[in-house]
Each structure stands twice: as structure tokens, then as C-alpha cells.
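Instructor's aside before we start: the two examples that follow are unrelated to each other. I chose them only because their records fit on one page, so don't look for a connection. First example below.
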Amino acid sequence: MSINTHPALPEFEYYRPATLVEASEFLASHSAEARPFLGGTDVFVRMRDGFMTPKFLVDVKNLDGTNDLRFDPQAGLTIGAAVNMNRVAASPEVQAHYPLLAEACQSVASYQLRTRATIVGNLCNASPAGDTLGACLLFDGVLQVHGVNGLRQEPLSTFFLGPGKTTLKPGDFVTAIHFPIPPKGCQGTYLKLGRNKLSDLSIVGVTALGYPDLKLPSGYRFRLALASVAPVPLVVAEVETCLGKQAVTPETLREAARLAGEACAPIDDVRGSARYRKQMAKNLSAKALNEVWEKIKRVGLKAG
């Protein structure tokens, strides 16, 4: 038995539509054999390794709006599907208003790969291990999807159906993602456990966001998203409830982290056992929530 250590890409046809409508019509009429692509950092690897063999790759990088990166102080942030992660992370507006998103982008692979990789591609790949998925969920991202019936909006909270599966239908592709203005005073962090420090998929990923909210008994709202511990990225509602209804203390932060560990349903694979992932989800959640709480307190002291 011989093993090909240098597999090549299978043959495919490159198709570059001129308009959004043309792209959707082509994707719909070739739904079983065409796939849209942006940076290609996922699709080319999966084709090379034999996990997919599309006849057509449909380049949607240069269509209307896909290269836009816009911030409006009232409306929020819009990131076109073709905007690469390095451009997002370097944006002054992203750094000022959505630093957690910049942090998540910078955790992805290498600088060279991030010149091709896109947030929208990361989302549409729908890997439960995606590094930017947690930040996009906690910032309440809404996808702008073009299909055979035109443009529509798709909340990211209901977009993921399973590993590699989303709500996109034949003819659909994402043109951009939009984020509303984040809550005032919000602080966040992304903690990633991998087999090495750089360029690895997460064994467990924890994204935490917190901010003052006088409508809650505790006066603060915390949100937590977990990666690589369930079939889809998991926003742990129990954490928000726990830390919203009672005072934020070391004890309640530990309890919230315990609830995060209990909420996940990881699997065994070559990168880690389910038992290990579950324990690390709890431990990293505790660390992330404490980091966010310390940031909130520091900002509060400065403001006072």
C-alpha cells in the first residue's frame, strides 16, 4: 500500500460571475456540483484531501459589497465577505469598538493565511472549532445572504445546523456580516486551547463578553460562547442567567464556569477526549469570565 504524501487538487472549472444575480442563478442551477469560494483556505484543503470534489468553484470575491468594511456610529459595523482577517484586525474602528473580534481574527493560523482567510468564510465553513464564530455570535452578527429571490438577512444565532451544515439553500451565498453597536462598556476575551501555540485548530475555544446592564439584578450581563465542544458553536444561556440574577463574586463566577462545562457535549477525536474537553471548557470558562470581570472593574475605576 502506498500513500501519496503530496496530493494534488482535483480538476475543477473556475467561474467568475459578474453580478450577485448571476452568481445565485449559477449556484442554484448547479447546486450539486458548484461551490462559492472566497479566500479558499478551507475549500482548497478539503478538495486536496478528497473531502469534496466540486466541478465548479464560483468566485464571489469581487461582487457588490463583498470588499466593503464600513463602520457607522449609529448603525454599526459591516464586513464584506471578501474582507480578509488581517484587514479586519488592523481596522481602527474594529480595534476601538469590537476589539474581541480583532483578537479572534489574530488567533487564526498564521499572518500569511489570514491575508486570504475571511470571517464570512470561517462562518460558512461551519466548523464547530471556528475561531471567529464566538465573537460573531456574542456581537449578535446578522448575515446578508443573496439567493435566487434576492437579498435577505439571516441571524447568526440560527445559522448553524451541524458540522459543515448551515441554513444556506441552493443559490445562496453570504455577501457580508453586520454587527450592531456593541453595548457601552463591554469587555471581552478569547481563550483558545490547541496542541501548539500557533496555527492549530482549537481543542476548546472560549469567548466571553461582559458589560454593565442596570436592568439585571447583578448590574452586569455576561455572555459566553464555546467552540469545539458541541456539533455547533454553543452560546451558554445558563452563564448569562447565573451572573445576571446574583452579585458577581468569585463564587458565582466559579458556578457559571461549572454550568458552562455541564452545558457542552464534546466528542472524542485525535485532538482530545470528550472528558478532557469538558473539563477544559470549565477551566477556560472560569479564566475567561474572571479576565472579563477584571477588565470591567478596571474600566469602572477609571470612569469613577
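Example two begins here.
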Amino acid sequence: MKIDRREFVTTTVTLLGAVPYSLLKSTKVDFKPIRFGIVTDIHYADRSNPTGTNRYYRESLIKLSECIDLMNQQEVDFLIELGDFKDQLAVPKEEETLVFLGTVEKEFKRFKGPRYHVLGNHDHDSISKEQFLDTISNEGYIKTSGYYSFDRNSFHFIVLDANYTSEGKAYDHGKFDWTDAHIPKDQMDWLKNDLDRNKMPAVVFIHHRLDTPPADKIYCPDNAEVVRKILENAGNVVIVFQGHYHEGGVSRLNDINYYTLKAVVEGSGPENNNYAIVEIDKDLKVHIKGYRKTESLDLH
């Protein structure tokens, strides 16, 4: 199916901000820009819209299909979903939840390039972390983990998993409070080492927000500030992409951009879809082209 781009409401975000000179200096003549797709909070389940909510779970599969068609047409370098890939029934059943996960993963696999996943809290709501990871796949990994990294073109990409309680216990079968999120010490140690070993410009993906606005701290890991400090000390992190907060948003803290993409599940009909193509050029300027309800932004 070929998508007529005129059918979409498209927007462009340009996050310019200051980039450390040392990082720009490291870019060479053979530097290869990157162009990839992002989508988040699909929340797919074969379930009707609950009274009093704006979540249309069943429609998310159609919205994702539209995204996949566009990404295939545009031949982006890879596609990543930022968590809450699936959901569950009002009365949760493990076997049904696994069917929903398998269904949305099958649709995601229609993308003809490399595909990646970020774990969200609803990905653990009636199944375990292991069950989720055993059902999906990430390009280049035989055994999928909740956090990992990969290189593409001239960039290093890092995926984080904040789906742990403040005590460091992994979310499992809905036995957690979604406002209690945490990145364990072993994962933060891995993050430091990974950034130390890779000095290419880095991009971070996480479901939860790391930019901790005072009014929205419930959407953030309790140690978000510590994680941000690791990213800042590395000196090569260009931007962090996030989901979880369905309204979306953008901020800049200590020379790192934080972009929260709007949710797919909110609102009925294709006009309420959300996804984007990200381009990072040789000057490390980030251009985000949003589709459907993603707003136009121009940050300097």
C-alpha cells in the first residue's frame, strides 16, 4: 500500500541547541547521517474503549499499520517503538495478553528494515518481562534483553529499561505500581561502561521520562536525575527519546534534548495517530518530522 503523503498532517521539529565542540570535531568527512522512525504507546488489545477514557485499544493495530506503510515507503534506517506495545483485557488473562502481544508484533514485523523495542510498564501488566522478551525480537540480538545498545551509520543507540520498583524488583504480571519506576544499579553501571566504550554521537531511548518536570514526576524513574548525570558526563549524548506521557513534550537540560512522543492509543480514527521520522545530520542537528497529531516545533 502506497501512502500519499498529502493525506497526512505533517510537522517538523528542529532541535538545534548547543553541541559540544569536541563532539562536532569528531565528525569526519565520511560521517553518515541517520534517519529512523519512532512510535510509542500503541497499547494494542482486542478490547473496546472503556467508558470515560480516550484510549481506543483495538484501533491501535490499524494506526500502527499506517505507520509501518509510511516507514516502508520512506525506507528509514530502522524503526523503534518506545514502550507500552500492548495492553490487556479489563479482567486480565495471561493467555489473552500473549495473543495481543503476538498480534501487534506480527504487524510490527511488516517493517522491512531493522526493528527495535523499548519496554514499557504495560508490557508487564499481566505477563513477565521474560515472556515479553521471548515473544518479540530486536535486530542483531539472538536473546533479547530489556536494555541494550547498537550502532547504525555514525551513531550509537542505547535502550534503557526503567520497569523496576524502587527496590530493584522487576515488574511482573501487574504486580507493581506504575508510579514506582527505577533503573537498577547494575543497569546504570552498564550504561556508564557502554558510553565509555563508544564515543560516537549517542541517542538514548527509554519509555519513562527522564526530564522530570516538577508536575509530572510520576512519569519518571525515581533516580532519573542520577541517570541524566551519567548521560551529561559522557559528553556525547545528543538526544533522549521517551514515551509514557501520552500528551508528549520536549525539553532541553544541560545540552541534551529530551523529546516525548505522543501516544498512538489516544483518540479514535486515523486522524488521531502519532508517529515520526527522525533525521540527525552531520552537524548533529535533530529534525523530527511528525505525522498526524504530532505538533510543529522549532527549538533553537
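The chain has one domain: 5-299.
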